[in-house]
Known about the structure:
By secondary structure, the protein is an alpha/beta fold.
Amino acid sequence: MAYLGITPMWPNRRLCDLLKIEHPIIQAPMAGSATPELAAAVSNAGGLGSLGCASMLPDGLRNVARLLRASTGRPFNLNFFVFPRPSTSDAALARAIDRLRPYYRELSLGEPPARLPPLGPGFDDEKLDLVLEIRPSVVSFHFGIPDAAKVDKLKRAGIVVISTATNTAEARVLAEGGADAVIAQGWEAGGHRGSHAPNGLGDGVGTMALVPQIVDAVKLPVIAAGGIADGRGIAAAFALGASGVQIGTGFLSCDEAGTDAPRRALIRSATDMDTMVTDAYSGRAARAKRTRYALEMEEIRTRLPDFPQMFALSNPLGDAGHARGREDFAFHLYGQAAPLNRELPAAELMRTLVAEARGIFAALSAPAGGGGRS
């Protein structure tokens, strides 16, 4: 079926058929940056728009779902985090406070918070009931997959369940846990790594190595993520055996994205060496802009509060720095392919990605040139 005047010959349509979309391109959820307007534009352009809902309260979640349904009749994805209730010890909190105290003094913030907010678990019965009430076409998860009973309820409601793996062992866990597709998130990806348990900041597998191994490990459609920003990346993902791609950073420069002005400016001048993986902001590994704070926290490692309680200590630093015009404490999430970004409306970016991929597929399948003798 032609869509937006372009009929690409996707090497396989497993993901398209599963998600009931025209183009196997998922816009990553990116909590805080993915807006209902962005998700709707991507879905209307034939991909799968997504919203990060991990921190939304019930009324907020209902509201964004209403906005999405008012803007698109096509499938969309709601994303949630899966993590246990944080159990930061008093000793770990005391060590973190000691480590951060000099920064608080530098920014005239007084003492760091002596108590952490009670949070979690990530996807509880209340969120499950909300999702079953809203009934999106797709629900995706980060940091693992809910227990079998929750997954069964989602699937019996007709909701497609997908989740992220950062290695083949995690992919097998997702397949055994009832996932319908697996997002293979490479080391290049911006934002939080989807590892099922906190791991070392240097523990990561690049997309080029990860995707074919997960394709071989599970029988589910595999979605390549990390470092994919144009048609070349999409074509490469299919060559590795993927059935589609998830793109996050590439959509941050779209008109409809909720990307703030400082991060837009950083992406506009980004290089491939701009980012690092740090747990200094949230307590879990995330790829973000290199900052003085993140680099210094890496030089002297301290056991940090559990995710996401660490935000209670790091957010005041970022807010105070920003108020003073300083970005050395800011948590700007984006990936290694940021220099490839295009500042376009989401629908135009989708058309561009599809056309680029189509051109590469056509060029790769064309007969070899040169008719003369050698």
